[in-house]
Amino acid sequence: MKAWIPLLLRLCLLALLIAFLTNPLWFEPLLKPLTQNGAPAIYNQGSLMSLAIQHLRTVAIATAAAIVVAVALAILVTRPVGVEFLPLSRSLVNIGQTFPPVAVLALAVPAVGFGEKPTLIALFLYGLLPIFENTLTGLTTTPANIVEAARGAGMTGWQRLLKVELPLSVPVILAGIRLSVVISLATATIGSTVAAKTLGEVIIAGLQSNNLAFVLQGGLIVAALAVLIYDALSALERMAAKRMGQVAA
Amino acid sequence: MSIRFDKLGVVIAAITAYGAFVAPFATFRANRIVAGEPRSILEALPQPLGLVLLAVLLAAGLVALFKTPLVVRLGASVVALLSLALLIGVAGSHLTPEGNTFARVSPASGFWVLIFAFTLLLADVLTRLQLSPVGRVVALGTAAAAIWLLLASGAWDSLSILKEYANRADSFWNEARRHVELALGSLVAAVLVGLPLGILCHRVEALRAGVLNVLNIIQTIPSIALFGIMIAPLGWVAANIPGASALGIRGIGAAPAFVALFLYSLLPVVANTVVGLAGVPRAANDAARGMGMTGWQRLKNVEFPLAFPVILTGIRIVLVQNIGLATIAALIGGGGFGVFVFQGVGQTAMDLVLLGAVPTVALAFAAAIILDAVVEYIATRKSTEVAAA
């Protein structure tokens, strides 16, 4: 019975989020006390729904690109051909993680201009790291006896990769993707400082006009999206782990 | 003996060729906000320096391309990086017309690509050398000293980023101090609160899930929103609690930034304390209990020292993250290097953006290397102690 409570809470959160995005005016009385001098309580320079969709789209494009590149790189450095690159790629990943998102974003502007592009670049770079690291962990910790068995069964390197190593690594890779998506959802808001159309626009409009209601609604929508997506991906991960006969971490 | 190619070297040589011959080395602009004109290495440098640089790059690229001893590779990468660093300064003074204070010369994509190629080579050499923790800090110190020397000698004074600096030297150091205060101060506060909270969560299981869930949810709130949300409670405190505003607590400015950074820092500190304490072997705890240690003595003499490397890893995460996030403080008037980044973005003056972004990246990078070295140093010392015992 108790196991249903978290699910119920999440469904409520989802319902609340959809209600807020489709009919923000219903919530105006709640946010009104946070405004001053009769300022609007609900963001009025664009539809919250379309901003949320743009936000998710930006994160989805960047994450998809990051998944392709990170998984391909991790596969490359764990094959005999690329094993020379393994130590270097590890240190590069560590160095890359120290770059602050604002700096990456701002430095990308001279190269590609304002708008969505610098945000995509920053999110892509940020998304790479957790996925790469987890794919690497997954591929390097496949039990040796399983790989041996696959080799004994006469599988070629490619077959072992596609039929044994990658499927066994799916739960760990998914964990990396989950981490990367949650980071990207929050980082995408900063993209609005360089004129990307994301929910950050609402927050920044609030900061500029000293309107706390805007800041709060922008922040809460992003947080709700992050919590829901995090949980959905966690569930997916548990399913994948169960299919692989592993115990969920 | 057959000639053998180094696989990474092929990549580095290709990047070098692109950076040296295709991409522009420097950008010349008539003033700080107009679009720039690209200049190649030979156009940007007086002869014969341009040819010398090309020769150095060619030699270093060849060293990278073939399988060569590590010492040679180390030498090649350092020489190439130093030549690039010195000559970009020369390009600055060469391209700036005599007496013209409006013209701006900045490194262009070719320069950055070349720096990237040889930093890659250097990183590869340093990784393969498997430096000890002390060795890594020494390497970092050497690099910092070299950069400081270049800055102090005035070799880079003709570059646009330093012209921006020269216009704001005072405010630069103010913002730098503010940035470090925000990042370090919130870390100290998070450790003071997070350690006891982590210990409490470890001892009282009922608390653990609740506290960690709340801290997890705080992490999902985007940073700019959390900074903004803090304005309201702190504004209320400043208005209603006597003495608060005298302490510098205000709705906007450094106080809300400090609180937001503090809240973000709590999760890694608390979570790592819990994980570290949970990882203490039961046998060690039982032995301490058998010796008649009280709960407090066990914590101080057994559990905490054993958990310390994990806790320190949490602190490393927080410090690097805080140095990056402190840039956001500028959006709510909290100061820090973000001031230059956002001013620069607003004025589309990219040199100003660099003035804020480069020190932030350097600080975060240095903090990561130093703390990683400390974590490894403590962990290896601990394992040798255990082996000796």
TrEMBL record, chain A:
One of its GO terms (cellular component) is plasma membrane. Keywords: Membrane, Transmembrane, Transmembrane helix, Transport. The chain crosses the membrane at residues 51-77, 98-115, 121-147, 168-192, 212-233. Belongs to the binding-protein-dependent transport system permease family. It is found in: Cell membrane. GO terms for biological process: glycine betaine transport; transmembrane transport. It is a multi-pass membrane protein. It comes from the Bacteria. CDD domains: TM_PBP2 (cd06261). Pfam families: BPD_transp_1 (PF00528). SUPFAM superfamilies: MetI-like (SSF161098). It comes from Aminobacter anthyllidis. Its main location: membrane. Residues 52-233 form the ABC transmembrane type-1 domain. This is ABC transporter permease.
Automatic annotation (TrEMBL), chain B:
Its main location: membrane. It is found in: Cell membrane. One of its GO terms (biological process) is glycine betaine transport. Pfam families: BPD_transp_1. Signal peptide: none annotated. Belongs to the binding-protein-dependent transport system permease family. This is ABC transporter permease.
